[in-house]
Amino acid sequence: MRAFFRLLLVEDNPGDARLAQELLSEAGPGKFELVVAGTLQAALDRLEKETVCFDMALLDLSLPDSKGLETFLHLHQAFPQVPVVILTGLEDEKAGLEAVRQGAQDYLVKGEVDEKLLWRVIRYGMERHQMQEQIRDLSLRDELTGLYNRRGFLVLAEQQVRLACRHRDGFLMVAADLDFLKQINDTHGHAEGDRALRSVAEVLQATFRQSDIVARVGGDEFTVLAIHCVADSAQRLTARLHEELEKVNEELRRNKSCAVSLSVGTAYIDAQRPISAEECLRQADVALYAEKRRSHPV
Length: 298
What we know:
By secondary structure, this protein is an alpha/beta fold. Helices cover about 50% and strands about 20% of the residues. Strands 2-1-3-6-7 form a five-stranded parallel sheet, sandwiched between helices. The chain has a four-stranded antiparallel sheet with strand order 9-10-8-11, with helices on both faces. Strands 4-5 form a two-stranded antiparallel ribbon.
């Protein structure tokens, strides 16, 4: 475990906030920084700006703008990567237990917490969350390419699409197919086909940013959600993709491996209205198949 932790306390009662600060100071002097948000909305805004900066959220279920289990569900659905410990009163203990069933790491009853219990719950909660994230990451990854699989893509893309719609922030959905994979497999063997798929993954990772979501969603099908884009991004990114593709193909030819080609379709989403990740992907697929018909007429 690290020596310093940054915690977000979502609590509207100044007395309870002071008590939490005192308990943390007693549990580990200089070990914690506590940031306080008095409403659920303030906590969501802070997490949106600084998600990676917080090791855990301590969440009161009774806030001015949200009450009960819905308080946890709203925060957890928006930021599942942040572990949460619930703070409840005696009358809310059942809601705290239900929040644990829904994904919270633990719950504490106010007035029954000392510094040792608080530190133990925080420490175990962070360790448990880290293990859960490692298992979750394995289940969301494509074993061959290391990219996200379809399930992983939809889980992560749905979060990003919700945020984009909330802030009316445009983004680009890209669908790409590896051309002639069956011919490569039939002519040169599946090992060469696997090499071609890994080459496509390399091209996509070189083209897009780390903050973009890159996935292999089917046998020869790939997709990317590129965030914070403007309407004319598609042409620029497609050109960059083909530049990276040519670089990889030069290396493949030098090694006497099959060069690869891609069919690409893009859909720009202006996020002026709510939309699902599945619908964004469908729009990109429509553009992809239009490009296939143009490039590879029957």
